[in-house]
Amino acid sequence: MRFIDTHTHPFVEEFDADRSAVIERALAADVRALLLPNIDLSTVEPLLLLCKQYPKHCFPMMGLHPTSVGEDYVAVLDKMVSLLDCSTSYVGIGEIGMDLYWDKQFCKQQADAFEKQLQWSIAYQLPVSIHSRAAVQEIDAVMKRYMDTPIKGVFHCFSGNLEEAALLLKYPNFKLGINGVATFKNAGLAEVLPAIPLEKLVLETDAPYLSPVPFRGKRNESSYLPYILKRIAAIYHKEEEEVASVIWNNTLAVFSLEHLAGSL
């Protein structure tokens, strides 16, 4: 079986002590590609350095995480878009979106930053990786203005109910990113996922966060993807190989990685 981690952050400081070993463990687990969403300006350099070190396996995205949106967000976005202008190596715009779980102080700025980055997606013809926490309605309010555009991507870290899934999947070019939460006993995804076509799912870890069982509470890493796949296969009552194949093809399509498929 082959895997692609559609959302992981091995460039952050939690991996400073053993970053290379983490990547090697992922490759040994048949995780052929790691898609790396940016967080803020401070993470750009380590992200791009890691992609330079592993050019056949680590692929960068560019974006401003919603919890990093502050008063200076316009200037930050200007710097980030200049980086997009300088390279064709990016595979997506991310991590973008809205997060109102802890603080709603910058709700308006988050919405504006989100919309500006959706416009990058159109301009650069790149998919988006969307973070939505306690903000599904707000995300939808922005996105519905782009319903008739070619925007595609992933709603990262989906852990919602059927109503939220229906709201997100009305955007036909989007998938739901499923991670270690699917293995949590009381997460509720086991009841929600069977109503969602397998063709709408991609795999992710969101490392270093949200480790799957049996590693819950420890630092997450991309080599744990098979545990998530195993749980999804059990939920759908399908063979792991079948599920892995469908999700592999889903991922190649949404991130336009078909040209890399032969080398992964």
Describe this structure in words.
- This protein is α/β, with parallel strands linked by helices and 264 residues long.
- It has one domain: Metal-dependent hydrolases (TIM Barrel, Alpha-Beta Barrel).
- It is 38% helix and 15% strand.
- It is built from nine helices and eight strands.
- It has helices at residues 19-28, 41-53, 73-85, 107-124, 136-143, 162-168, 189-192, 225-236, 240-254; strands at 3-5, 31-36, 58-62, 92-99, 128-133, 153-155, 174-178, 201-203.
- The chain has an eight-stranded parallel sheet with strand order 1-2-3-4-5-6-7-8, sandwiched between helices.
- Strand 5, helix 5 and strand 6 (153-155) form a beta-alpha-beta unit.
- Helix 3 (73-85) runs parallel beside helix 4.
- It is globular, with a radius of gyration of 17 Å.
- The model has no long low-confidence stretch (mean pLDDT 96).
List its traits.
globular, 8-stranded parallel sheet, alpha/beta, 264 residues, TIM Barrel
How is the secondary structure organized here?
Layout: E1 3-5, H1 19-28, E2 31-36, H2 41-53, E3 58-62, H3 73-85, E4 92-99, H4 107-124, E5 128-133, H5 136-143, E6 153-155, H6 162-168, E7 174-178, H7 189-192, E8 201-203, H8 225-236, H9 240-254
Parallel strand pairs: 1-2, 2-3, 3-4, 4-5, 5-6, 6-7, 7-8
Helix pairs in contact: 3-4, 4-5, 8-9
